[in-house]
Amino acid sequence: MLELAENVVYAGIALFLVVTALVLLALAGKSTWALLTDFTETPVLELLDVLLLVFIVVELLFAVRTTVEKRELIAEPFLLVGIIASIKEIVVLSVEAASAVGTGGFTDRIVEIGVLGVLVLLLGITSLLLRRKEREPDEGENQPADPETIAR
Length: 152
What we know:
The chain crosses the membrane at residues 7-27, 47-66, 78-98, 110-130. The chain has 152 residues and is mostly helical. 82% of the residues lie in helices and 0% in strands.
């Protein structure tokens, strides 16, 4: 009974994520259409922002699907979401920083970009370490048998 309730909750989450992704794709289409008439950085930035949000939603959908299939929570999709979200903010802040050169806000944006860059690096290293750990054989496998254990 509890497993059924869990599946219903995951199905609801997946449904909301799919609807969100479709709405975001429609917004991306609108931003793309705006590019045909407006040659400034604003529609390009809006399009990148929306597309990176689509990537985030799709990764979350993958995490939900994997959780339902394997019955375990896997960290890597969430690390990837963190990386994508940080990169999304770096892109937005970079454009804002370019227009704020010479003001006090410029320094704040550059510091935030630096912190987000370190976060991306740390999340990437964590993801790499998790992948290495998954590829390692389990402890105790492929080791010679202990003579004392055999004698018993």
